[in-house]
Structure formats: C-alpha cells, structure tokens
Design brief:
161 residues; single chain; mainly beta; disordered C terminus; globular
C-alpha cells in the first residue's frame, strides 16, 4: 500500500538535466538535452504536492506544472501535467511505489492518436532521482521519450550551510 509520504523526497529545489527524444515513434535515437529547474512543495496537508518545472524549449521559455495527489483509500497517486504550451491539463497517470520505484500509467493523445503513458521514478537518493516517460501504441512495446536527472540545487545547499 502506498503512502502520502511517497513523494516527500521530491520536496525542494532541483537542477534537472532533461533529455527529450527528438521524434517519437520514428525509430529516432537523437536526443535533445537541456538544463532545467524544478521546485516542489507539499499541498493539501501533505496529501499532494505541486512541482513547477522551467526550461527553454523550442527557443522559448517553457513552464510545466505537476500536480500529484494521494488517494488514501486506494494507496495510489494521480499525477496531472499542465504546461505553458498546451494550456490543457492532461489526463492523470495513476500508480504507486513498490520497492523504491514508482510506476504510474495512463492514456494520453500523441500525434492525434491515443497512446499508453508510463512515468517511472527510480534511483531515488537524498540528493538525486531519475524520472522517465515511456509511450506505447499497443501497451506491449514501450519507447523511452523523456528522461530527467534530478540533483539538489546548489542554491539550496548554500542556504542550508
């Protein structure tokens, strides 16, 4: 059973290396790599959190908002995404952490077509974490399309000392 504390590791300021596959579902192996920041804080009396993600994308400022909520009845988390390009909240991915790895799945629209979506949180340590986004057209073959390497912000480290 999941816990309302599962995402506590993510609270705070992060420097992020964001890798995005340049083309999805095209046998592409070219990645765009950029620096980003993420700031995450608890909300809803600890049963949720908000993350504000910022980077430059396609030569323009980009901001994304992650909304994560915990359902104590099911022990699962729902993760919603909204960004400054689409301005529409995406359907949630739902799941939980098992043995230190969080897997969250749902359905979204990619190129006008419904696709399965999987978020994976892994390699979680005090100062680092990894997030991945996988897509599948058939629910069997999955393509890694986005990956983020989180490191605690140096600014936060300086404030603590």
């Amino acid at each position: 059973m999941g816990s309302a504390n599962d995402f506590d590791f993510l609270h705070g300021q992060w420097d992020v290396e964001h890798r995005r596959l340049k083309q999805r579902f095209a046998n592409c192996t070219d990645w765009e790599v950029a620096c980003a920041t993420d700031s995450v804080r608890p909300v809803l009396h600890g049963r949720g959190n908000l993350g504000t993600f910022r980077r430059e994308l396609f030569g323009r400022p980009f901001e994304g908002l992650s909304i994560r909520t915990f359902n104590p009845r099911t022990g699962e988390w729902s993760i919603y995404w909204l960004d400054s390009f689409g301005l529409e909240i995406e359907p949630p991915v739902v799941g939980k952490f098992v043995d230190g790895v969080g897997v969250f799945e749902g359905t979204n629209i990619e190129g006008g077509e419904a696709v399965a979506v999987r978020f994976v949180w892994k390699d979680i340590e005090a100062k680092t974490a990894t997030w991945q986004q996988w897509l599948s057209k058939d629910g069997r073959a999955w393509e890694l399309v986005s990956e983020m390497y989180f490191r605690r912000s140096e600014q936060l480290k300086r404030q603590r000392t």
